[in-house]
């Protein structure tokens, strides 16, 4: 029954984040749905955004928002392992965040065995366009920036800028003027 409810949630999120709900008069319906679903008005979603459990129902599956977050277009967030978003997180276009993976060693790939891990995204994190965050990542530190087109496979330190495939540390942010 829970798997069925997740599928309904997926379809509803796709529907409420369609272009129709960008019009100001009916945008409040989308905001109301996301409030009822996630118990916060502090998330702003645009088009084609889905935040759901893409794996089998489990006790780790949860999502928490600690403050305002902005999700742009074409985003899929898998919270199968549990995910926490800090304050002022910005997720740009075409981003995929995964918290579960399929196991394949010493078994048939058709056994559909999965494992999940939690992810904590710190405050004031900017995830740029076309980024994939894999299930091997547990922490993205406060103030981090993930460059466009990156595939993140390891934890990201606070105030660091990472980019590439796989993402590597480029430099730390200069916060003297902030």
UniProtKB/TrEMBL annotation:
InterPro entries noted in UniProt: Hexapeptide_acetyltransf, Trimer_LpxA-like_sf
TM annotation in the entry: 12-29
Protein name: Acyltransferase
Keyword Membrane: yes
Recorded GO MF terms: acyltransferase activity
UniProt entry keywords in alphabetical sequence: Acyltransferase, Membrane, Transferase, Transmembrane, Transmembrane helix
Domain of life: Bacteria
Taxonomic source organism: Winogradskyella vincentii
């Amino acid at each position: 029954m829970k798997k069925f409810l997740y599928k309904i949630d997926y379809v509803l999120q796709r529907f409420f984040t369609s272009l129709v709900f960008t019009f100001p008069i009916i945008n409040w319906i989308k905001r109301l749905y996301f409030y009822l679903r996630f118990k916060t008005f502090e998330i702003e979603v645009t088009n084609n955004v889905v935040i759901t459990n893409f794996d089998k129902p489990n006790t780790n599956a949860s999502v928490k928002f600690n403050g305002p977050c902005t999700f742009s277009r074409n985003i899929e967030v898998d919270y199968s392992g549990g995910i926490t978003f800090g304050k002022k997180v910005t997720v740009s276009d075409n981003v995929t965040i995964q918290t579960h993976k399929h196991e394949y060693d010493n078994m048939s790939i058709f056994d559909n065995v999965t494992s999940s891990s939690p992810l904590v995204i710190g405050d004031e994190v900017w995830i740029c366009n076309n980024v994939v965050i894999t299930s091997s990542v547990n922490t993205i530190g406060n103030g981090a920036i993930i460059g466009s087109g990156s595939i993140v496979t390891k934890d990201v330190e606070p105030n660091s800028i990472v980019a590439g495939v796989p993402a590597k540390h480029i430099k730390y942010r200069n916060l003297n003027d902030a």
